[in-house]
Design brief:
By secondary structure, this protein is α/β, with parallel strands linked by helices. It folds into three domains: about 5-130 and about 285-300, Rossmann fold (3-Layer(aba) Sandwich), CATH 3.40.50; about 140-285, Aspartate/ornithine carbamoyltransferase (Rossmann fold, 3-Layer(aba) Sandwich), CATH 3.40.50; about 320-355, no CATH class. The protein is built from twelve helices and twelve strands. The strands form three sheets. Strands 7-6-5-8-9 form a five-stranded parallel β-sheet. The longest helix is centred in the C-terminal third of the chain and has 19 residues, at about 280-300. The protein is globular, with a radius of gyration of 20 Å. The structure holds aspartic acid (2 copies).
């Protein structure tokens, strides 16, 4: 049984194959209309979402399966204090596959430890969002025809933007990528992503506070929303919320074949005047989400053979109850009796990171 917690749980060959299947679904939807007959997808959304939950549900219904679930914490037993572990045990008795979104980082890992069916991480706090990345990669392949030799600009909230973290880790497996990180000082990319996927792998990168100054270099501009719900201080959110607004004037400085992506929802970071620009691909990107999730669900249920290499398991050294995670957004802060586990991520410098949220041990 396989889960999708982190985009790196899929090999690049598997991602290519999923995109092939998604493209085939677009061309021949009737062939896939019954693939999940008799199967149930549970969507456990402890945090608000429209797009992701609806696209999972639409994906399962289009495959002939059924869906059940909840869309806010207050309507689930979590409001009564039920743990993620217990919920996973229970719900895996009622369903064949689970998509879970949770405000705490690492919650889907806990679910996967206790579930008897595959778990899909549909977004965990400010950490990862791997199915958004599948959608992003599908759109990049359609529009650019390749994943190599691209200058990728990521703009906005790089600190809390989980889609950014997953996309960078995915792109770090291709050749000749240059990362351009555009954010205010306060919202810079955290080290668990920058160190591991950009610096250690030797990719070229630069950091800039100004979108205008760098937009002309980019092949892809990935815009993001400032993640209001992750800010501790409201004042800080209000100070930073209008940091970047993409307008037709800025688009005039970009390459003719640059593409603009955004995981949506947008607040005001892309002016609606940009929507008619042929380089604006975010609505196409949102549509792709349904088809790639269809391919993913069918694959994880073993109903479609993808027949390509799986990623190689890397044995990790794990230590239990030696350190305590200090990230207040980590699942260890709320899940009672969850052991504090840390993995050795850098042997040479003896750096340990939380197994759930990847915060560094002190
Ligand atoms: N949270 C956002 C929404 O409500 C995006 C998502 O669901 O992925 O649309
Ligand atoms: N929909 C994306 C997410 O759920 C991006 C966002 O909400 O800004 O992370």
């Amino acid at each position: 049984m396989r889960h999708l917690i982190n985009i790196l749980d899929l090999s690049t060959a598997e991602i290519d194959k999923l995109i092939d299947i998604a493209d085939d679904i677009i061309r021949h939807p009737q062939i896939y209309g019954d693939v999940c007959h008799g199967k149930i997808l549970a969507t456990l959304f402890y945090e608000p979402s429209t797009r992701t939950r609806l696209s999972f549900e639409s994906a399962m219904l289009s495959l002939g399966g059924e869906v059940l679930g909840f869309s806010e914490q207050s309507s689930s037993s979590a409001a009564k204090g039920e743990s993620v572990a217990d919920t996973a045990v229970m719900v895996s008795g009622y369903s064949d596959i689970i998509a879970m979104r949770h405000p705490k980082e690492g919650a889907p890992i806990v679910a996967a430890m206790h579930s008897s069916v595959p778990i899909i991480n549909a977004g965990d706090g400010g950490h990862y969002h791997p199915t958004q990345t599948l959608t992003d990669l599908m759109t990049i392949r359609h529009e650019m025809g390749r994943f190599d030799n691209l200058t990728v600009g990521l703009c906005g909230d790089l600190r809390f933007g989980r889609t950014v973290h997953s996309l960078i880790s995915a792109m770090s497996r291709y050749m000749g990528i240059k990362f351009v990180l555009i954010s205010p000082e306060e919202l810079r990319l955290p080290y668990f992503v920058k160190g591991k996927y950009i610096i250690d792998k030797g990719f070229e990168y630069c950091e800039s506070k100004s979108l205008e100054e760098v937009i002309g270099e980019l092949d892809i501009l990935y815009m993001t929303r400032i993640q209001k719900e992750r800010f501790v201080s409201e004042d800080e959110y209000f100070r930073l919320k209008d940091s970047y607004i993409l307008t037709p004037e800025k688009m005039a400085l970009a390459k003719k074949d640059m593409i603009v992506l955004h995981p949506l929802p947008r607040v005001n970071e892309i002016s609606v005047a940009v929507d008619d620009d042929p380089r604006a691909c975010y609505f196409k990107q949102a549509r792709n989400g349904r088809y790639i999730r269809m391919a993913l669900i069918a694959k994880l249920l073993g109903l479609i053979a993808t027949d390509v290499n799986e990623p190689q398991e890397q044995a990790e050294e794990i230590i239990t109850d030696k350190f305590t995670c200090r990230n207040s957004r980590c699942i260890t802060s709320t899940e009672q009796e969850l052991p504090q586990q840390f993995k050795l991520t850098d042997k040479e410098n003896n750096i340990w990171r939380c197994r759930y949220c990847e915060t560094r041990a002190e």
